[in-house]
Predict the 3D structure of the following.
Amino acid sequence: MLPDLAPWRASADFRRLWLAGLITNFGSFLTFVALPVQLKELTGSTAAVGAIGAVELVPLIVFGLYGGALADALDKRKLIVHTEAGQGLLCAALLLNAVLPEPRVWPLYLVAALTSALASVQRPALDSLVPRIVAHEHLPAAASLNSLRWTVGGVAGPALAGVVVAYAGLAWAYAADLVTFAVSVTLVVGLAASPASREAARPSLRSIAEGARYAWSRKELLGTYVVDIAAMLFAMPLAVLPFLADELGAAWSLGLMYASIPAGALVVSLTSGWTSRIHRHGRMVVLAAAGWGLAVAAAGVVRNVWLVLLFLTLGGCFDMISGIFRGAMWNQTIPDELRGRLAGIELLSYSVGPQLGQVRSGGMAAWRGVRTSIWSGGLVCTGAVALLALCLPALMDYDARTNEHARRMRARRAGTAG
């Protein structure tokens, strides 16, 4: 049941990347909580908070696709270092705005959009670097360890942010995030160079289209994308959590609400040894996404704050299970020369959904109420996932032992090692 530490022991670059990601995630979750709280204080509007997802969406789409092409064509280490430093500068801008006598609203949206652009360029480089620095047979374990890294920050960051924002102020949350960026930049500078493969195409619309055609030809991969988009679009409740805490008369619980989904993910990550023995990855993606929707629906129905936290935590468990098996399918079957562009498409699949989900949940809450926004979204999510599973049999049939693309990549990695 314990996590498989083989990637950590075997790869120094993986250890460095893992530690940098842990530190960055911890700080980023502080801002993740502080930003909507500040918008809520300045505007008092659920729609204004939900609009964060809207302003992040266009940079996410444009730079996610182009960032994937850049990750294939350029040195991945340089992309990671430069984009990490850029995000640190944007965090400094949030800090400066927070200490003004009258903080402005527009810088919050501007920084959110620019941060989305930089993160979208960086993420394909991060994702496509992992198969280069980790042995093929260790990739499922690496996915679990990366999930563990994210969830540790996701639990500690929001929980601490709730306390920091309530008792020290927003500026302290932004300041702590800025410090974490400084430390993470120091770590990623030490990564080994990771130049483009000889087969990689130059970044262009043609190369982006080539990656999209490959993704479309792989129906099992296509299934992982659309299932995750549906789950996040319909059932992501984060934008309305500040209002749910107020409605339940438990403003103190906001940090715990933000931390509960990562806490559930942490439970799965800490007991993820079993995931290496599962081979029907597609079925696990579908079942976990449906479970996520049901857990979120239950969180919207119950009226006790502790039950809300319990169901959000259960939802985090299901979300992490889905993420582990999606990552294993991606990393074990995609050729290296396409890895960056497909990572850009993957970024859209697990990021566009949450951004649109913020808009949906905020708009629905303004129209029909906070609780209705949450439970209805969870039920629609479960129904959409079931329908997609019926329409995409290749996803349900995927088996890592017999899939032709997985076997080809195993042989290719073995030949390279030889």
The mean pLDDT is 87. The chain is about 80% helix and 0% strand. The CA atoms of residues 261 and 316 lie 4 Å apart.
